[in-house]
Automatic annotation (TrEMBL):
Keywords: Coiled coil, DNA-binding, Transcription, Transcription regulation. It comes from Saccharothrix variisporea. PROSITE patterns: HTH_MERR_2. This is DNA-binding transcriptional MerR regulator. CDD domains: HTH_MerR-like_sg3 (cd01282). Residues 1-68 form the HTH merR-type domain. Transmembrane segments: none annotated.
Length: 123
């Protein structure tokens, strides 16, 4: 399939696919006419990349999943390097949640204090 069809089927743009290629996440074969050609395995890679970036992974974080698929595994997260990325991402999310919970607690406290001081405005 050509790049336009891959983009359509993968839910992305041709520009994104070229970018993935520049990063080495996707490898196009060239036809006799010089146009990029892809197959179903490439669609699987694009789907994996889009799925992971859709839940907040950086493009570089998708590399172990892509490599795992290229090595013939049925799932991009079947390899130890992919599991390590999951663990790192989960730790990042946990840290972010902790920061947000602390901020929420501070805002809740400040709101309670402000409500104690708050009086109706005289008109």
């Amino acid at each position: 399939m050509r790049i336009g069809e891959l983009a359509r089927r993968g839910g992305t743009t041709t520009r994104a696919l070229r970018y993935y290629e520049s990063l080495g996440l996707l490898t196009a074969r060239r036809g006799a006419n010089g146009q990029r050609e892809y197959d179903e395995a490439d669609l699987r890679l694009v789907t994996e990349i889009r799925s992971l970036t859709g839940i907040g992974f950086a493009l570089e974080d998708t590399r172990p999943f892509v490599e795992c698929l290229r090595d013939g595994h049925a799932s991009g997260d079947s390899c130890p390097a992919s599991v390590a990325v999951y663990r790192r991402k989960l730790a990042e999310l946990d840290e972010c949640i902790e920061r947000l919970e602390a901020a929420r607690s501070r805002v809740r406290t400040q709101l309670a204090e402000a409500e104690k001081r708050s009086r109706p405005c005289a008109r």
